[in-house]
Amino acid sequence: MARIKYHYNPETCQYERVRPKKLDIFLNILGFITLAGILGFLMANLLAKYIQDDDKAGLRAENEELKLHYDLLSKQFTEVSESLEALQHRDDNVYRVIFEAEPIPSSVRQAGTGGSQKYQEILNKNLKNEKLVLTAYQEIDKLKRKMYIQSKSYDEISKLIKDKSKMLAAMPAIQPISNKQLIRLTSGFGIRVHPIYKVGQFHPGIDFAAPQGTPIYATADATVKKAVYESGYGNHVVLNHGYGYETLYGHMVNFTVKPGQKVKRGECIGYVGSTGFSTAPHVHYEVIYKGEQVNPVYFFFKDLSSEEYEKVLELASIENQSLS
Ligand SMILES: [Zn+2]
User: Fold this and answer.
1) Which residues have a beta carbon within 5 Å of ligand 1, which is an ion?
2) Tell me, what CATH number does 242's domain have?
3) How close is the Cα of 69 to the center of ligand 1, in Å?
4) Which segments of the chain have a pLDDT < 70?
5) pTM for this predicted structure
């Protein structure tokens, strides 16, 4: 607000109001505007610099923070990668060994992704931290590839497990008759004295002596291949288990299955007798693997404890006379 000035007039002996000149008013206003303008300009400049500095500092802090997180993520990424490698190692050296699968060649496991187009796109963007971004993408692609191969390997193994359980069901694994007291095994596999010729002869199976009519069981899941009478084996059944395995049950009094029929492990397929070349009621049991008779004693693992198995091995090794 403009001050009101007075001055003393000695002529009138009165204080009279001083009326400001128009020029003075104009100059005053101009001065004020100029000063305000200069001050405003300075203030704006100061403020802008301050804000700019503040922005820069903020960005720097943000950048530092991001770098720190990137380093932490990289570390975690390495840990994940190492865990995956441990899984691969276990896969190649344990699971694939158990299921008899070849290990996956490292050239396949380490194979690149071939995504060079994607990398080129990143390069074209001329990013400031190009290397950092590119490395991150490449590492992630490698990890994805490794995981894909690993999951494929697990798929293959689960298929093998399925096949293996089928194969285990098809493998002869029990004795062909109930033999809880282990008193039935009378003659083992190998050279045995022939009951009629009284000379050492190769005995291609195991004899279990039992009263006529004792049930005989399929020792694994199978399809009946033969159920016939022949002079040597008498009434006998041959089962085809697949996977190269067959079993033969000889000298039955009669059989209860016919060729082509499917049977399960433990299912009764006939009864003990003494038909064919036999001196007493017994079942002559053979395990045939890929066309060759093998020692059935190695295929009794399912119904025997380890002590019982030792006992069976001992009984089967006695060089006695076979019942044929
Ligand atoms: Zn025999």
Assistant:
1) 207, 284, 322
2) 2.70.70.10
3) 76
4) 1-2, 111-116
5) 0.56
